[in-house]
Design goal:
single chain; alpha/beta; Rossmann fold; N-(1-d-carboxylethyl)-l-norvaline Dehydrogenase, domain 2; 2 domains; eight-stranded mixed sheet; binds ligand FVH; NADP binding; nucleosome binding; RedAm-like_C; DNA binding
Length: about 270
């Protein structure tokens, strides 16, 4: 099963990285992209280029879609699905929970077995240690697909509901963008007050964020409760200080939403004793 043929539909930055990692691992890869001219390097390394989606899907084995968004998946695959041809599709295109569930229903109507996915990697880290791919859908299908697609990242099944991979993908991305917003805000503060941004990033921000990452993830909670060891009164004062320091520096408090909701949580905890 490891040698099942794989067709990659979509050769953007991510689709190309997926195809490259699969070729590197010796897989038999067929590629297709809407705009021609993106397959040259992959073909030189042994990939076969299909001239249409139908041809890519018809190459047999497993089809992996990695396109811009849900609409582009439907637009690209739709014409090829007129005949109920069966087959297996793994969708590694980002989308919402609802879109993943609807896609599963739509493809199921054509007899296509469907696994939803979420890529926990960026193109340069595809297939490297630490990269992983979320999958949701039938467990037996995952068990078949996992060894075939292993080279793109550690396969991690999150459940039968096709919406689950999208859910965790979107939520994890929110965490990442939130972290990015925090780092942006930190750098803007240092810049506005005349600090050395590069030194700050290297000597302070990175080691600090690395130290705090596990604590931040462990402490993330939708409930209003704050663990005792967090000392909510101190945290509330600290958060107010960050907000006023930002105002003093004239840095637009893009993070105000995050900070205010944390402040609100701490204040509620203080009030509640
Ligand atoms: N790149 C990243 O860092 C992230 C990491 C996490 C996962 N995302 C998601 O992966 C999907 C693809 O992302 P990408 O980086 O490959 O995106 P692009 O380089 O912009 O390539 C987009 C491809 O989609 C094709 N495409 C767009 N619309 C259509 C359509 N209507 N029909 C057929 N194909 C379409 C596009 O083709 P072309 O413009 O070259 O003709 C590209 O192949 C994405 O969901 C990320 O959220 C990546």
């Amino acid at each position: 099963m490891r040698h099942e043929r794989i067709s990659i539909v979509g050769l953007g930055a991510m689709g190309s990285a997926l195809a490259s990692a699969l070729l590197e691992a010796g897989r038999e890869v067929t590629v297709w992209n809407r705009t021609p001219g993106k397959a040259g390097e992959l073909v030189a390394r042994g990939a076969r280029e299909a001239s249409s989606v139908e041809e890519a899907i018809g190459a047999g084995g497993l089809t992996v879609a990695c396109l811009l968004d849900d609409a582009s998946v439907r637009e690209a695959l739709g014409p090829a699905l007129r005949k109920p041809a069966g087959g297996t599709l793994v969708n590694l295109t980002s989308g919402s929970v609802r879109q993943a569930r609807e896609l599963a229903g739509w493809l199921g109507g054509y007899g296509v077995r469907f696994l939803a996915g979420g890529i926990m990697a960026v193109p340069p880290t595809v297939g490297t240690e630490g990269s992983f791919i979320l999958y949701s859908g039938a467990r037996d299908l995952f068990d078949r697909v996992a060894p075939v697609l292993g080279p793109i990242g550690r396969p991690h099944w999150v459940g039968e509901d096709p919406g689950l991979a999208a859910l965790y993908d979107m939520a994890a991305l929110s965490g990442m963008y939130g972290m990015g917003a925090g780092a942006d805000h930190a750098v803007a503060l240092v810049h506005a007050e005349g600090g050395d941004v590069e030194t700050f990033k290297r000597e302070v921000l990175r080691p600090w964020m690395e130290q705090m990452l596990p604590i931040t993830v462990a402490g993330a909670d939708v409930s209003e409760s704050v663990p005792d060891e967090y000392n909510p009164a101190m945290q509330a004062t600290g958060l107010e200080t960050i907000l006023s320091a930002s105002a003093e520096a004239g840095v637009p408090a893009d993070l105000a939403g995050h900070l205010r909701s944390s402040l609100w949580r701490m204040q509620r905890a203080v009030t509640a004793g």
